[in-house]
Amino acid sequence: xxPIELRNVHKKFGRHVVLDxxxxxxxxxxxxxxxxxxxxxxxxxxxxxxxxxRPDQGDVxxxxxxxxxxxRKALAALRGKIGYAFQTGALFDSMTVFExxxxxxxDDHCYRDRTFCMSRVAECLQMVNLSDDVxxxxxxxxxxGMRKRVGIARAIAGNPKYxxxxxxxxxxxxxxxxxxxxxxxxxxxxxxxxxIVVSHDVRGSxxxxxxxxxxxxxxIRAVGTAEEFMAAKDGVVREFLERDFEFAxxx
Amino acid sequence: xxxxxxxxxxxxxAVNAARLVARPVLGALGHVxxxxxxxxxxxxALPEWRAWLPRAVEQCQQVGYGSLFIVMLTSAxxxxxxxxxxxxxxxxxxxxxxxxxxxxESIILELGPVMTGLLLAGRIGARYAAELGTxxxxxxxxxxxSLGRNPASHLLLPRVLAGMIMLPALVVVADATGLxxxxxxxxxxxxxxxADFVYGTxxxxxxxxxxxxxxxxxxxxxxxxxxxxxxxxxxxxxAEGVGRAxxxxxxxxxxxxxxxxxxxxxxxx
Lengths: 251, 269
What we know:
By secondary structure, chain A is an alpha/beta fold. Chain A has helices spanning 42-49, 72-79, 97-102, 108-112, 114-127, 144-156, 174-191, 202-208, 226-230, 235-250; strands spanning 4-13, 16-26, 31-35, 57-62, 65-66, 82-85, 162-166, 194-199, 211-216, 219-224.
C-alpha cells in the first residue's frame, strides 16, 4: 500500500488554476522534497493531504483511504497520525509554548495526563534543540526560527507516522536554514516518519530528501533522486536548479 | 402571440441587471448556508465536553465578570435618565406613581436587555471577531484542525455558550441596577415617595415581564456571540480582512439585536 498518493488532483481558486492534474506518491519511510517557485501551489498540495482543502477533482489517498471522503471522526483520527509544521509556525498565540506543544499530543488519554505531557513536551522541545524553559514563554516572545522549531515540536508531539513540513527554511538566514535542514535530517533518522518537505531551497532539499519533485504550472514536472535531477535535460528543471546554484555561487 | 425580442444592444444591460441582483442574493444565501452549517457543527460538538467545558468557564468569566462594571454603569445611567425625563414630561394631572411604573417597565422590557445587548455587541462581538479572524488568517484554525482537534468545540462553542449563559445574568443585574438608579433619581429630583414608587412599579408589573427580559437577553446572547464567531471565522486577507470582519460583526450584531427586539415585542407582548 502506498502511504500517500495524489491522483489527478485539480484545484482552482476563482479562475486561478493552482493544481492542474497532480499525480504524486510517497513511499513508506521516505523523505520527498517538493520544490517549486513561490505561488506554485506547494502548500495547497500539502493541505490536501491533511484534509484542510478538498480537491475540485481527483483524489488524495493516505493509507489507502480517500481523505476528502473520510467522515469527521475518521479524518480526525487520520490527522492524529500526521504532523504538520506550518510555514510561520501557526502557534496559538494565547497559549504558552508548553500548551502549544501539548496540543500536539493526539492521544486523549495521554493529553489529560499532566506528568506525561510535561515529559513529552520537554522531550519534543529538546528534539528541536530548545530548552525546557522555552515552554513557559508565549509565542510572541520567540524569534521566527524558534517559532518554526516550536511548530515542528508540536507536529512531532503525537509521534506521527507522517510529517509534512511547509517551507521550514523560508525566512531564515543561511546559518539557521542549514541548522533547520540538519534538524529535519536528524528527526527523520530518529522518527523514521514518511515525510514531505515543501521548499524552494534546492540546496537544502538535496541534503535532506531521498527524492525530489518539482511542481510547475500546477503539475509535477519531474520526480527523482538528487543525482537524477542534476542530470535532467528538461529546460524547466535546469532553469530551477541553475538559478539556485548561481545564487549559491554568487553568495 | 408576440414574443418579446431582446435586441443585442439591450442584452448586456439585461445581463448586467440580472448580475447586479443575483450576486448579492447568492452571496446572502451563501452566508445563511454557511452560518447554518456552523450551528450544526456546534450541536455536533456538544458531546466533546472535555474540550469545551473548561474553555466555556474561562469565557463566562471574561464575558460576565469582565462586563459587569460597564453594564452596571450603563444601566444606572439609563435608569436615572428615564426618571429625570419622566419627571420633566409628567406634569399637571398625571399621578406621580406613574413615574415608578414607567421606570420599571422601560428598564425591564426594553432598556436593560437592549442596552446590555448593544454594549456586549461592541465589547464581546468585536473581541471575538478580531480573535477568531486573526486565528483564521494566521493559520491557527488550520493548525488546530491539523492536530485532529475540532475548532467548533475548542473555539466556537465555549464562546457561544458564554454569551447564552452570561447575557441573561447580566441583564438581570442591569434591570436591578437600572431600577435602583431610577428610584434614587426620581426620589431626589421629583421627590416621589417610596410608597408611590413601589405602588407604580407594582401597578403595571406582570411576572411575564421578567421572563420577557430574560428571553430577549438569551436571544441577544446568541446574536452577540454567534454572528461575530461566524464573521471572524470567515475572515480573509490579513489585517485588513480582520478589521473588516470586526466592523461587520459589530454592525451586524447591533442591527440584528434591534430587529429581534422588534420581532420579539410583536410575537411575545
